[in-house]
Amino acid sequence: MELKDKLMSSYLAFEEQVDLENDIHEVRNKAIKFFEQTGFPTKKEEAWKYTSLNSILKEDYSIFPKKEDAIDYKDIKKYLIHDIDTYTIVFVDGIYSSHLSRTTHDKLDACLMSSALDKEKYKPIIDKYFNKIVPEDSMSSLNTAFAKEGAYIRIPKNVVAEKPIQIMNFFTSNEAALMVQPRNLIIAEEGAHVQIIERHQSLTDHPVLTNSVTEVYVGKNADVDYYKIQNDRITSSLIDNTFIKQERDSRCSMHTFSLGGKITRNNLKFYQHGENCDSVLKGVTILEDKQHVDHNTLVHHTFPNCESHQDYKGIFSEKSVGVFNGSVLVDRLAQKTNAFQSNNNILIDDTATCNSKPQLEIFADDVKCSHGCTIGQLDNEALYYLRSRGIPKKEARALLMFAFANKVLSSVKIPEIKKRITKQIALKLGVELGFNL
Amino acid sequence: MLKIKNLHASVEGEKILKGINLEINPGEVHAIMGPNGSGKSTLASVIAGNEDFEVTKGDILFEKANISELSPEERAHKGIFLSFQYPVEIPGVSVTNFIKTSINQVRKAQGQKDMPANEMLKKIREKSALLEMDRKFLSRSLNEGFSGGEKKRNEIFQMAMLEPKLAILDETDSGLDIDALRIVADGVNRLKTKDNATLVITHYQRLLDYVIPDVVHVLMDGKIVKTGGKELAKELEEKGYDWLKEERAEMTS
User: Fold this and answer.
1) What residue in B sits closest to A378 (Cα-Cα)?
2) What is the ipTM of this complex?
3) Among A74, A207, A298, B72, which residue has the fewest nearby CB atoms (within 10 Å)?
4) pTM of the prediction?
5) Which chain B residues have a beta carbon less than 8 Å from that of A381?
């Protein structure tokens, strides 16, 4: 059976598990109809021109995992940021794992989407926020249709979350192949501050396909600092759909570290909805071995006096493919916008591919917008310079790659993440450097 | 210390060095002068091990060992240092991190442990003061946005940190104003010992007013055509290179 047909019939089974009286179900019904009409995206669509899902859609995925596979903290510890205190929401094969999680309702909510959707007391918030900024596209609609579980995070007005919150999705898969669709909702109310770390990690070599949707609402003068760590196995693919709405005077930064996985697609859309917003989108992508990462970003400036900064760096080798398609849209009313975008790539060998496509649409006349993209090789002269100072070739190459990625790492505000990513990059490059960048 | 025998080198098939013979002993300062395009920088690059150049004939001996086949890093480990004519800008690596990595990689190659952090810090302070470098300078990205003078000072700072046996200064005076030239030259002079040697490569005699050479060689068309004492540099400054060209033309005809 084709995956689309399987999903359509699974939806009928899914309806038996959920409350059909809930208003949300109308949203799901609408979404599945949209998906039924459109199906999976193909390379004929401009937004998917360089990324074909064919190779991952042919698997016979299980849509509903049978049961939670028991895993211990020691199995997952290394994937967590464990050297600092955090709230942690852990899902195993899409199912919440209470014994691995540390949730809270004290001062702030860091808990489950399933209870937020079901419980009466969350209804006003769900009515106000759920599926309000998710565009009608086939992958997001598919997720909405099956929306049931994920992280629900709400930081009330003027609360500063004193610990980062980790959203961790692990896959053990009793099944041969598994498809999961986490649905996250994050609300930082006026003046709230929160740091979030999200990771999808397979513990098995069975194929895994994740199609996740995250809605992030950043209230007036609120601050959301978000990190996505994508360093999964070569058997796992991720379609990440993240939509962010910012109110006036708010700040939101998103760092995406794409270091592994079969196909990773990041649909990341920022919608600014007030003056004086600041949006930061940064990414480091280091791939080898036929891995494929596609960053599809949008920053929509609709109000005056706002800023956005996009900076994506990629290093590609051994038949890996990188895609960057970054859009900046500046409405006529969005005067005094400062929008910057840069995408720099290094191809380590001639089997790697990179497609970089910046798109700027500017309808205001008093703005500062710039973009630049480069695709090149490691600078041989720089390499020689380092070697002439006694730094061996391998280390010199690594140092240059670090230096290249450093600009993105320097804005990471959680030192443990910076340390972790630096270490992972060093590991990938097979070197040890005597300092931290 | 350095002995070059009948060295021929080419780049992309074009012959640049056509039989260089040169011997430098510990404690000596040699200068190589010559018009543009004579092969001065090529000689510096070939000694340092730049792989863009192909040695087609001859040998380079350093402390009696043939180093012609060694990589640039292996030569650095042996104590050869090249101050670049055009130091490369490397954004994202600070001067401090770069020099730390460099020193510890050299130590590693020599079978020593990393330099203790406090010792490193002390040495960085001491040597940067020698070059009258601002502390802020050390945390900046390597050579990025540096002025010509800052780049050259940074090269000599690295030399001071690495304490090479043989330092090759490739056009270190170019792009320097008189104050920077004096600071750089003072630095070079203070680093001189009876055990190390310096090879100064320059088009102009100006730097040699400060760093006094024991031997001056004139390089023309890939060969050393004249060797003399420090007075030869003065003569070249007054008369230019043309008289040597003529002299040479007469000799070859």
Assistant:
1) B90
2) 0.94
3) A74
4) 0.85
5) 88
